[in-house]
Amino acid sequence: xxxxxxxxxxxxxxxxxxxxxxxxxxxxxxxxxxxxxxxxxxxxxxxxxxxxxxxxxxxxxxxxxxxxxxxxxxxxxxxxxxxxxxxxxxxxxxxxxxxxxxxxxxxxxxxxxxxxxxxxxxxxxxxxxxxxxxxxxxxxxxxxxxxxxxxxxxxxxxxxxxxxxxxxxxxxxxxxxxxxxxxxxxxxxxxxxxxxxxxxxxxxxxxxxxxxxxxxxxxxxxxxxxxxxxxxxxxxxxxxxxxxxxxxxxxxxxxxxxxxxxxxxxxxxxxxxxxxxxxxxxxxxxxxxxxxxxxxxxxxxxxxxxxxxxxxxxxxxxxxxxxxxxxxxxxxxxxxxxxxxxxxxxxxxxxxxxxxxxxxxxxxxxxxxxxxxxxxxxxxxxxxxxxxxxxxxxxxxxxxxxxxxxxxxxxxxxxxxxxxxxxxxxxx
Length: 428
Prior knowledge:
The protein is α/β, with parallel strands linked by helices. It is about 30% helix and about 25% strand. It has 13 helices and 27 strands. It has a 4-stranded mixed sheet. A 4-stranded mixed sheet has the order 4-5-3-16, covered by helices on one side. Strand 4 and strand 5 form a beta hairpin. Helix 10 (about 315-320) packs parallel to helix 11 and helix 11 packs parallel to helix 12 (about 385-395). The longest helix is centred in the middle third of the chain and has 13 residues, at about 230-240. The protein starts with a strand and ends in a 7-residue tail after the last helix. The model has no long low-confidence stretch (mean pLDDT about 95).
C-alpha cells in the first residue's frame, strides 16, 4: 500500500497509542515460562507480537485469545515444525534464550530481512552456557538450530549494547545452574529486568552489571500493558513540528530507559509536559502533552546515548532536517542491522525531500533547512522508516507519496487511523 500526505497546519487532539511492543513480547514469554496462568490486557496486536505468540503455541504453550489474552505456562514440548519468527528480531533472539534450556530440538527462522540480521551475538553466549546451537554462515545468521541442554551460569560482557542480547541471556540464565553475570557497555532498555521482578524473579543490578541467580521459579501474573513510547514519538514530533499544534497522549510507558528521546527534545529546545504519573506492573506510566513552541535547534548525539533512543533516531533525523543549525549523530552503527539499513534508508529518502543530510559509517550529519519538499519516497519495507517519512510529508511543501507502507503493521497497525482521528488527511 502507498500513502499520500500533504503539509498540514493546526493539529489538536487527544489520543492513546496501542500497547508497548517490547512489553507485549516479554509478557507473552514470561507468561509461557511461569507457573500458572498469566492474563494480559492491551497486548499489541501487531505482526511482530503475533510471531512470538504463534512460536510459543507451536512450542506447546496454550494461549487463549480475546480482549484479554490468557497464557497457561510451562507446557513446553518439541515443535513439530520450524518456528517462523517473521520479521521480528525480538522473537528470534528472546525465544532462543528460552529454548536453549529445553531438552528438545527447535529450528527458528524468519523472512528475508530477518535472515540477514546478526545472530552470532546471541549464539556465542548461549554456547558458553552449554546449549547446542548452530546458525547459517558460521553461526552468523538465521535459520538457527537449537538442541536444548542443561545450562550453566556464565560471566559475560556484551560487546555491543543490545537489550535483545541481554534479554536472551537473562532468559537462559533463569534455567541455569549457578549465577549469571551480564555486563553491557552502556545501559539499554530494562523491560526484561522489570518484568522478571514482577513475575517473582530475582535480579541484582550493579551499575552496568546485572546478576541473575539460576534455577528460578516464576509465577503467572496479570499484566496491563501501557502505550508504546516509540509509537507515541511520531505524535510528539507532530506537536513539535506543526505550527499551532497541541497534542495529548494518554497512558504512555515512561520507563526511563525508553524516554531519553524527551531529553533529546529538551536539548533541542522543545517543551514536553508530563502528567498523571503512576506505576503499573512495575513500569512507569503517564500522560504526555506537547505544544508547538517554535523551531528547534541542532545538537550532537553520541554512542552512549544511542541505545536509549535506538528506535527514535530516524525520527530525530526528520526533526533535525528542519531545525536550526547542525545535528550530528554518531555511534549508531547498530541501525544498519535493523529491519533495513536505517542509516542508508533515512538519509537516502530525506535527501529526496530536500534535507541536507549526509551519511556517515555510524550515523549521519544534518544541516537544517527552512522547509522540506514533497516527493515520492520509499519505506524500504521498514515500519519505522515508513512512519518517519509520513511525518516528514506532513511538514513538507506539496504532496509526499510514501511507497510500501504495509510494513507499519509490524509495530503500529493503527498508525494511519490515529493520524486520521486528529484530522490529518491520508489518501491511498
